[in-house]
Amino acid sequence: MPFYPESQKQIKERILANFPSAAPKEADLGLVDIGRANSDIDTQEVLANHLLWMLDRIEEMPGDEAGKRGRWMGYVFACLEFMGIATNADSRNMCRIDVRNGHT
Fold it and tell me: Is the distance from CB of 46 to CB of 32 less than 8 angstroms?
C-alpha cells in the first residue's frame, strides 16, 4: 500500500509547478550551503530534485520501516514550507486526507 499517496501526489504537483524541469535526483545537500555562496547553483532546484528523489525512495522502503518513512515525509514537508511552496496548514491538510482514508 502506498505511503501517504495523496500527500505525495500533491507534493509532486507543487514541486513541478514551481520547478518544471525538476527530476528525481539524489543530492549532496552540502551543495545547498555551497549554493548560498555561489550564484551558479540554484539551491532550491537542487533541493526540489532531492525531494522528488526522496519521495521515490519512500515507496521503495519496506513496510516495516514506517517510522523512517514518516521521518522522511516530515522532512519533505518541512522543506516545502522552507521553500515557500507550502504553508504548515497546507502540509497538515495534505496529511489529513491520507489519514482520513487510512493511508498512513
Answer: yes
Average pLDDT over residues 23-40: 67
Provide the domain limits for residue 84.
5-100
CB 6 within 8 A of CB 101: yes
Question: Could you tell me the pTM of the whole model?
Answer: 0.86
Quick one: pLDDT at residue 63? 79
Rounded to whole angstroms, how far apart are CA atoms 61 and 20?
27
Q: How many residues does the chain have?
A: 104
CA distance 52 to 31: 17
pLDDT band at 30 (very low <50, low <70, confident <90, very high): low
Number of domains in the chain: 1
Set of cell numbers at residue 103: 493511508
